[in-house]
Amino acid sequence: MIFKAFLIKYGEIGLKGKNRYLFEDALMRQIRFSLNGAGEFEVTKEQGRIYVNVCSDYDYEDVMERLQRVFGIVAICPVVFCEDNSWDNLTKTVGDYIDAAYDDKNFTFKVESRRADKHYPKKSMEINADMGEYLLERFQGARVDVHHPEILLNIEIRQKTYIYSKSIPGPGGMPVGTNGKAMLLLSGGIDSPVAGYMIAKRGVTIDATYFHAPPYTSERAKEKVIDLAKIIARYAGPVKLNIINFTDIQLAIYEKCPHDELTIIMRRYMMRIAERIAREDGCLGLVTGESIGQVASQTMQSLAATNAVCTLPVYRPVIAFDKNDIVAISEKIGAFETSILPYEDCCTIFVAKHPVTKPNIRVIERSEHHLDEIIDAMVETAISTRDIVMCE
Ligand code: ATP
Ligand code: MG
User: Is the pTM of this model over 0.85?
Assistant: First the structure.
């Protein structure tokens, strides 16, 4: 592979002082994490730029795909090195690079050079002019266009010379780890993995909680959620997944509360439990995949009833999205195929035929009083017996 390094471009708006270091350090950590297993790489910061230097064989497509998953990267420029900076060798290396990188030799271009090594015998302006001349001679169909060139050829002269002209878009966003941590309520559906992805894209570290109800939900349903957490981890870094056995609580609600309120009451206990764990683990908010009106438990009234039990902020990134839009993101991030596997969900097992769509919070609270004598102990047990799986 001709590319021996990648220059990482990142958004620099608002990056001053200490924030800049935090941002860059988090970005480098996430890059290292994403390249784990793709070969040997050295991620460095030089003069306010981040480079991924290649130290072994690697697969270009694979590495590019991995880098394109790292939030905070705006663009990736594959770099060719020129070790011997003598002018003859430099022009030849640049010419060979252009020859290999562009099939169509009818192009407009501009040379932009920088000298980190100030002892280099030519100044930047001379390098631009002389290299331009060389390229015009070598490629008959080439023309210079200093305003809107098709190829912006960058030449950075240091110990060795860095040559690059291609810029492949990254995902944008902010590096995970720069904006605190949130607790994602992760089900096996389509929406919650997308919600987790979207929050992670803003730099938030993701923990997750999944409620299952064995034996009503299977081991395979649980494995599916672990797989979804791993898919989120490809973007967000390691996800700590809490798996809560929710069976006894669900059975108690089923036994003691009106059946048309089952889903709402169950959702309220999910939120309470997730919030407890979130606080213990230093999360600053909860995240769900709720979207207004999608199902009975997601009407404005139902969302208000669910929200009422939480004091941490609840983030719902897909709240105003149509299902189609959520599906499009799910497909883009590679979660869709897993999300649609047909395993039972703990919510669907105890659902009423006619759930309330406009729950009244007072009425719901009264129904929950039927659980007073048993529920606290059950919640404690559910939390203390949870399984924790690190998904990466
Ligand atoms: P999803 O596709 O995310 O499963 P959904 O359309 O099935 O969403 P609901 O079942 O009403 O919607 O759930 C709404 C939200 O509640 C989910 O997006 C998720 O954040 C959370 N949630 C639902 N069930 C569970 C569960 N078993 N474990 C953890 N969180 C859950
Ligand atoms: Mg669901």
Answer: yes
